[in-house]
Amino acid sequence: MLTKHLAQVLDTLNMKALLIWAVLLNFYKLLQTSDCTSTHDQVLSIQVTTHQQADIVRNISSQYETVLWSPASPEYIGAHTEVHLFVPANNLGTVTDLLQTHHLTHQVLLDNTEELIEMQTRNESSDPRSSASYYERYHSLEDIYYWINKTAQEHPDMVKVILIGSSYEKRPLYVLKLSGRQERAEKRAIWIDCGIHAREWISPAFCLWFVQYSLNFYNLNNDITEMLNSMDIYVLPVMNPDGYKYTWTTNRMWRKNRSLSKESNCVGTDLNRNFDANWGTKGASNRPCDEIYCGQFPESEPEAEAVANFLRSHKDSVKLYLSIHSYGQMLLFPYSCSNEEVPNHAELFELVQDAAMKIRRYYRNNYKYGASAKTIYLAPGGSDDWAYNLGIHYSFTFELEDRGRYGFLLPPSLISKACNEALLALKSIALRVIQKTQPQP
Ligand code: 9B3
Ligand code: ZN
Ligand code: ZN
């Protein structure tokens, strides 16, 4: 009896201690999340409304150790731009003070980037409680090479691996060629590349997703069956393996490839500025330290050259070109390198409009769509514009999710949503292109 009473007293004491502890913990968290005292790296969303403010934000992003998430380069910041800026903890005070001084409104978009990065890189395959499939996680470069090999071995009737070249650091560039089991003479083809930009992790994840979907649902889903019976599909899961590797080991925010420049200590060329489409004009940079550095000359980078060579030698069969990026939720088509409209602008517009409508209807998500130069920004040297000029007149760039919150740090749990909606858009466009490019008997 006495011992029972004692236990009760002890229990309430424990509860009190726990309560006090919880209050203290919350107070500490509150301190951490107010901008100036945060001990975390943050991503700020900054509302620019005037040209003067645009100048200030451009200066901040270039003078302080920060990483511009959106837009990709300071020169794209104009009046009326929402800027997403990654700011390391040690610079937060200075940066937010500057923003306040110049009456720039900002919100903290992310205060837990370390945590999100940890979530993205955690290997859950060993965790039996996790129900997430291989395709609902992000994978290291080594994992992806292993997966390419295994996928080809498990589906010898439908998959061939083609080595199209190697990266600056001599990593192989493998393309998976997917084919239906119906042999047809003069087969048309689709090209899909992922991972041009290293930090856009949802992009390689989409390529993997698409390949497994194609293999699992061939002869089960009508759309994918028709696609694979009429077209071969070339999939390049990681166009920028050196950069991708670097985002896993060293710097999660890296965008370019990893080539060394002769004239500077800065590393990397933007592969999506290195193609021969108004190369080096406004919207690209000739300074090696910039995020949108266009390289020494068109196709100076082995990754871009390999893709261009492959497409040149398959240009008669490839009818549809598709490049996967993130983030921003957009379905884009040429030109990006000029404000001019392409000859089949209306046709391409209808295709992306239709695809965006389907995403809205089935996934309640809004994708923007249109010609790149007018929808995102004027930028030369992109792969889609180059492919268009080569004669592939159905050429698109998809910018996949986030839905406005996570940017490049999209949690693994949101991979399936992002991929399914992009898959819907891809199927919608591909099926229409198959009809439009029917060989004449
Ligand atoms: C840029 C260009 Cl140059 C293009 N031709 N198509 C799309 C884009 C947008 C991507 C980029 O490279 O900046 C978005 Se990450
Ligand atoms: Zn990109
Ligand atoms: Zn992007």
UniProtKB/TrEMBL annotation:
Cofactor(s) for this UniProt protein: Zn(2+)
The annotated active site, in chain numbering, is: E399 (proton donor/acceptor)
SMART domains from the xrefs?
Answer: Zn_pept
Lineage: superkingdom? Eukaryota
Q: Name one Pfam family in it.
A: Propep_M14
Q: Which residues form the signal peptide?
A: none
Alphabetical list of InterPro entries matching this protein: CPB2, M14A-like_propep, M14A_act_pep, Peptidase_M14
* SUPFAM superfamilies linked: Protease propeptides/inhibitors, Zn-dependent exopeptidases
Instruction: Give the family, as the similarity comment puts it.
Output: Belongs to the peptidase M14 family.
Q: What is this protein called?
A: Carboxypeptidase B2
Source organism per entry reads Salvelinus namaycush (Lake trout)
Upper classification of the organism = Eukaryota, Metazoa, Chordata, Craniata, Vertebrata
Gene assigned in the entry: cpb2
